[in-house]
Design a protein that fits this description.
With 251 residues, the protein is α/β, with parallel strands linked by helices. Helices cover 39% and strands 16% of the residues. The protein has helices at residues 19-31, 49-55, 83-88, 99-103, 109-122, 134-138, 142-154, 181-198, 201-206, 220-224, 242-247, and strands spanning 7-12, 38-43, 62-66, 93-96, 125-130, 163-167, 208-211, 231-234. An eight-stranded parallel sheet has the order 7-6-5-4-3-2-1-8.
Length: 251
Amino acid sequence: MSAERKFFVGGNFKMNGNLESLTAIADRLNSSELDSNVEVVIAPPACYLASLSSQLAQKENVNVSAENVHQAAKGAFTGEISCSMALDCGARYAILGHSERRHVFGESNEQIGEKTKATLAAGLIVIACIGEKGEDRKSGNTMVVCVEQLTAFKDNVDDWSKVVIAYEPVWAIGTGEVATPEIAQETHLNIRSWLSENVSPEVAASVRIIYGGSVNGKNCKDLASRPDIDGFLVGGASLKPEFVDIINCNC
């Protein structure tokens, strides 16, 4: 964590929850005393975006994100939502490039780049996900993969203040296996160094790089203490009461 960059905690609900359970999460956030130095963003399924946005409208520093958007403004894309639809529902952010979109739904770096361009043009902030598979880590290709993914974002970003980078090693997502704080910090530092060399030192110093991959109430404090880890993108734990503990991990 750096004092220069506001700590960021996102909750990616994925395809989980219903109106009752997600309303309970909104109620918990509204009634909890949250660290005012933390930006909180929750990403519910698209059908609950408007409801959650409305329920959290008066809670300072808490916003909602789309879990995904399509790059086209409109058209025959059954099951997709456009950036303008997400905005209409109260979203301020969109998660792009998540490993499940890449490896389950087959999204390419090229498509994710197109989505990035459209999302930023629409006025949404991008949570740009990158990360390697287990075999990439074992073969020493972590940064090779991350650089390929980062380049697709870089080629479509003009204003980096509208981007949060989420490093999520695929082998740690939903597996219970978390990257050690040392591994996470090393990769975050390598990402920041790449940004310094390929974008600018100013962007490298200011952009937030958050960690995702089995983050929970027990490991969040140690991870947050590392200088280049600027927050978290939380999966399963964001659906539980411990999400508040993660938000407040620096208190």
